[in-house]
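User: Can you write out an input/output pair for a complex, sequences first and structure second?

Assistant: Here is one pair. Inputs:
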Amino acid sequence: MSNQIVVPFGPQHPVLPEPIHLDLVLEDERVVEAVPTIGYVHRGLEKLVEKRDFKDYVLIAERICGICSFTHSVTYCNAIEHIMGIEVPPRAQFIRTIWMEYSRMHSHLLWLGLTADAMGFENLFMNAWRLREEILDDMEATTGGRVIQGSSKVGGIRLDIPDEKLGEMVDHLKSIRPLLEESNRIFTHDQTVRHRMRGLGVLSKEEAWDLGAVGPTARGSGCDMDVRSTGYSAYGELGFKPITFPHGDCLDRCLVRSEEVLAAVDLVERAVAKMPDGPIEEKVKGNPDGEYFAFSEQPRGECMHYVKANGKKNIVRHRVRTPTFTNIPPLVKMLAGIELADVPVVVLTIDPCIGCAER
Amino acid sequence: MNEQKHTVIEIAVTDLLKKAEEYHTKGHRLVQIGCTPLGDRYEINYTFTTAWDFESLRITVHDGDEIPSISGTYWGAFIYENEIHDLFGLSVTDMNIDFQGHLIETRVPTPFKNPPKVTIVSKGGDAQ
Amino acid sequence: MPLFTMVKRALANVTGKPATLMYPATPAKQYDVSRGHIVIAIEDCIFCGNCQRHCVSQAIVVDREARTWEIDRLRCIICGVCAEVCPKDCIFIEPDYHPSSVGPVVELVQGPPAPPKVEKKAKTEE
Ligand code: SF4
Ligand code: SF4
């Protein structure tokens, strides 16, 4: 019987963008068990809803996460709009969808860069981030914020995108598409990437389903699970097909994301082609009374906002189930049995966002 | 407006394990467990789904009640149950991985049950 | 073929301009709608306190008696709610960022003295 030692990993670690602590029980170089601890960035944003006007709270809901920010605010708005029975004008729905896809592109490019960085592939890292910058420029030009857009509100959106600008955005996306395809090719075919990630941290389809994996983590294991297929916002009119890969290893989770960037470009192009005219917001009167579970697909996976209100200005309960939080049990399963040196890459492939896991 | 289907079923705490077992054999996945404090009582929602027709089991508990853990059926449930324990101070029995309050280590223990005092920047600032 | 791609990329990187900006020597990118910082046109302010009540991060303190409007720059998250709720539309969002700082930045803006009552009456009669 060999001796077991416990190696603390994190919360401050060069490869971790955010503070998660893992106690790794090792047998020689092999991980036997991993015990996660979070709580380093708990801000209690869910509780703050009891102190703020529900309309102003959209901006706080957006700040739950620094990367999937826009999707958080839209999901919160969806919940309130359902409770109050507000019909959001179609143009607002389409523009929300465009922004959500933009935030997916930028989040995935950020993640692809970070993964390349974790592998020591600096060139690819910079390439991915340079592409991300192009996306962020369009984002700032239309919403006013690079990563925190703040352009969604209960009942619609705050500012419109003029039609000329929409055309420019599509042209811009067309011009960077070859570059995105090239970086996609590198992730699919490059020896370094394949060697580092193929067959690593395998999560079978059954395990992924049973442990509650969501988003690219589940789709990389072959689960055909994407909330966008339910057609919230404008996804119903755009036609949507989830991207899945069958192997369930790190490389497949990576490929899901790099394919989704291109799929997002397509979705934006289709949304712009179908863009309806009309108003961008609906007047909101009164206060919400009731409860609703709103689901949406964030870059990191399925996210749930549960809102319970009792007809007052302040909401009773706002619960956010973020994708990272439910991806922790699959992560714990994936970590058991791998080498210590592979831990950083495996942790990164669930795209951990601890800020939103704790709110 | 696109409604996402969601059925809420109110059950007694004692039925919870049996129901969870049923969902598991039917092939549902666990979406989330969430707690809602309502003054003197807490509502806990267990959400399951196979595709996109969500179903929630709802139990109502009070301070000091013990909640049976469904982590025997759904291995991944420990994360939510520990969260409920750490944030609301409710006790969950027989969890497969019991962090004993160390999953979310906040400076103020059980912050959602005994919220720390809110400092108001001079002359209020809260929406009235 | 991969070698060819690589050579092309390497040449582009050697001969091209850097992709980054030397901020703050070169100003950051700006667009018309960029949210940089909040300014107030204090002459128009009626000190109603709406901005203070709606500010999500409690960055604004309005004093009706002393006729002052105060903003804590480090609390402000530049969300723009105050500009939206102001009844006199006297809060604006400027696209350039506030200069960085190492300590607290609280700006106190003193409003002009209250107009005499008589004048106000005359205005409503018009
Ligand atoms: S809302 Fe406008 S008018 Fe009222 S106190 Fe604020 S700045 Fe002045
Ligand atoms: S921009 Fe937002 S945070 Fe800043 S002062 Fe205005 S309301 Fe407050």
